[in-house]
Amino acid sequence: MAPVQAKSISCPNCGGPVQLRGFEHTLSVVCPQCHSVLDTSTAEVAILQTFQEKTQVQPTIPLGARGTIGGTQYEVIGFQVREVADGDDSYSWDEYLLFNPYKGFRYLTEYNGHWNFVHTESAIPEPSRSAGKFAMRYGGKTYVAFDSMTAATVYVLGEFPWRVRTGEAVACQDFIAPPLMLSSESTGDEVTWSRAEYIKGSEVWQAFKLPGSPPPVYGVFANQPSPYGARIGASWRTWLWLNVALAAMAFLFMVISPGRVAYSNHYAYFQGVKSDSAFVTPTFSLDGRNSNVKLSIHTDLDNNWAYFNFALINDQTGQTFDFAREVSYYHDSDGSEGSRNNSVIIPSVPSGQYYMRVEPEMAPGSPYMRYDLELRRNVPNYAFFWITAVLLLIPPVLTTFRKGGFEAARWRESDFGAMIPRGGGGDD
Amino acid sequence: MSSPQGNCPNCGAPVKFLWSSAVQTTCEFCHSILVRTDVDLKKVGEVADLPPDASPIQIGTEGAYGNKSFVVVGRIIYEYEQGAWNEWHIVYNDGTSGWLADAQLEYDLSWLTAAPEQLPAPARKGQSFQWQGKNYEVTSVTKAHYKGVQGELPFQYWDKSEMLFADLRTSAGDFATIDYSENPPLLFLGRAVEFDDLHLKNLREFEGWR
After folding, report:
1. I need a labelling partner for A15 at 20 to 30 A (CA). Which of A34, A124, B52, B190 fits?
2. Buried b vs exposed e over A200-234: b needs ≥16 C-beta within 10 Å?
3. Are residues A161 and B139, on separate chains, in Cβ contact within 8 Å?
4. Which residues of chain A does B203 touch, with a Cβ-Cβ cutoff of 8 Å?
5. What pLDDT is stored for residue B160 in this prediction?
6. pLDDT single digits (tens) A165-175
7. Which domain holds residue A80?
8. What does the DSSP 8-state code read for residue A19?
9. Structure pTM?
10. Are A23 and B206 an interchain contact pair (Cβ–Cβ within 8 Å)?
11. A125 in the same domain as A176
12. Based on the domain organization, do A303 and A166 belong to the same domain?
């Protein structure tokens, strides 16, 4: 069979030639000369409507342009502007009709720089609920109710596989599962479902090889995928790995730089042996730069407590660091409280020859305690690691907040943003 | 049954059958409608010139769905208030036949199926039915008439001036049609299909398109 020939007709209003791009599928076409809407479904072309509009809209993608989306080439054969008149809150969007003689019809819509590639669906979605909101189940996905409005066609160009007229209004409902959106359009009891996928303006420009750059993007669109959606998981994963690295670093510090032991010894405490239990240690040297000193106490206390008064005294200058620590350890069949050990870090101790004055105390009637004292110079300071761990929290928390802001902006445009809608239609 | 071959009783041109069970065909040359009897072909009428249409499918188009291949052997063109659609009669490689509907390049496959229950006459839009564990909803009720026939059909053409169809769909893409031109009505079950799912070959060509 010979190829199907593209058809051309004469406008019955102005006599001008009208090329048809949609072959026999075209049921109506707008005369490019006089803008009359013509009915091409019968051999005798009839005038459906004469154009009243004085202003002309120039589609951003010209009629006749061809572009490849998802591996299929489509030609732009129709264009309409659809308007939602809602008092002060009126807005309009552009809709391009795409055609391929084998694959059929698709749509491209544009609003404030946001683009959607739309496919009419023949299967019917099932009413459902999602987190208290009215929703639709379709193709294994749940689409949440977003918006409902009445949209009227206010401007048309090109051809359509139905009898198009300006002024015709349909009731629309949108349900979202970003980057997808499911929409219904109803006139009377006729309901048509379509599924839209959000695409970037740059992808449209590339597909149709259009000059310049796509129109700027304003606001957040209903089914626009969140730029933070994938990043939130990634930033928390990064946070987790940085913490693992930090813990490894702290561990490494502990192993390679546990501090040098400046002094250590074993002691025993007997109550009542001397009236004063205080004593002084031999001198020892603390060297290096101004640095910390850590004193660790290890006891064999058993259901008892002890109190230690310490003074670290510089033998040459007399500079004294006074400090004290309590050690208490109690346990019974229900568990235990406290610890047999304790420690204290004295920051910024200059180098020099030192000795320590130690004064242990115990409750009267406590007979006996063994304990060890160990003095280490220059121990790692773990506060640094804790501060770093808190700072590392900042990026993931910020990203989480930004995603929240993005979602809030999305739902500000919704009918159902702040409230839970009452039930759903079609349940009666 | 005669051999699947013969000559047009009107113009003498050879008439070949692609499907051995065909009841009716049309002569490619003189457009006579021919019905097969036990002994020969009988002319029962004449089809008007087929209206121009832009379905990419034609008689002889081959395709495959699931694990069965098929060939297009005939068609009925229906006209309704909002345009026209094609019901392509397809014959599978296992000898069974079915229909491939092309309504403005939206495709549905269906097969004549024994009705699981008495079908309502006529179905109302929005009504739902449980068949084979699936929930079908009536999405349209359409009045249509024959605008043309071509090729081999599983029944004899007669002038059905006006026919009533109810289309039903499920949420999973299942499709059904109730054909009220017979009593009791006929039920066809099938699926909505994408063009690429049909793996079609030997399609028509379109000026300006590869």
Report:
1. B52
2. ebeebbebbebeeebbeeeebbbbbebebeebbee
3. no
4. 102
5. 63
6. 888 889 999 99
7. 8-225
8. E
9. 0.76
10. yes
11. yes
12. no
